[in-house]
Amino acid sequence: MVTAPARRRGTSSVLRATGSSLLTAVLALGSLIIVWMAAIWLLRVPPFVGKGPVDVWRYLFMGAEAEANRAYVFGELGQTLLDASIGFSTGMGAALLLAALFLLVRPLEHAIMPLALLVQSMPLIAIAPLIILIFGRETATVAVMGGLVVVFPALVTIVFGLRSVSPYMVELVSVYGGGSRATLLRVALPSSVPALFSAVRIAVPGAITGALIAEWLATGQGVGRAIVAAVAQAKMSEVWALAAVVTIVSISLYMVVNLIESAVLARFGFRRAEA
């Protein structure tokens, strides 16, 4: 039975972790804006090319065309987030499946990990034509490109988490007649919760990057396509607005995961895994 003082300590830990994550999010966004403005000023970027936060705000929220601008930018952003969710789901699903198989069948790791490392070391832009040739320019290519960006970092993090389980817990399961499957389900997976959160934290911005590359090179939709089109037409306010919105959303999603992670780990007494 959980006592009242213990419950209060748990609630206090969650609140502290939540407050710390919110403060980090505010500082990160504030720092981004400061660096953005400072870079334009220090590099003396011509006003026609370099647009600051105020210019982006005017483009999105002031003037006769602001409503149409918002509809266009956020419409493209919605497509990019959909593509990112496809890549995220594909990459994280593959990482979880492979990590579980590595734990159950040890020789499989020695066979697949070098291949995964080789694929990860190859620039996605270099192999994109081959992916497009095989899968076309539809959702399958988005899944493959986004999944490739996500899967390897997530796989390494999850495998590390699954392997960090206490040997005494593994021996305890073995004493009671449990095999590799029981060890995975009853010990390794629960113990790897911090690593799973860390993998998700890494995967979220990676999935957005993969989606942008897929849109630019393959599908011709979303922010990835829109930025290239706007640059070609010298619509610099549109370029900066698209880039700013997708960057802010990427950072915000990262911080949301960080916030949930901090609250859950504080509630159940886990230590954060290093990413």
Automatic annotation (TrEMBL):
Pfam families: BPD_transp_1 (PF00528). It is found in: Cell membrane. Keywords: Cell membrane, Membrane, Transmembrane, Transmembrane helix, Transport. GO terms for cellular component: plasma membrane. The chain crosses the membrane at residues 21-43, 86-105, 117-136, 142-162, 195-218, 239-260. It is a multi-pass membrane protein. Residues 73-261 form the ABC transmembrane type-1 domain. Coiled coil: none annotated. It comes from the Bacteria. GO terms for biological process: transmembrane transport. Belongs to the binding-protein-dependent transport system permease family. This is ABC transporter permease subunit. It comes from Georgenia yuyongxinii. The lineage of its organism: Bacteria, Bacillati, Actinomycetota, Actinomycetes, Micrococcales.
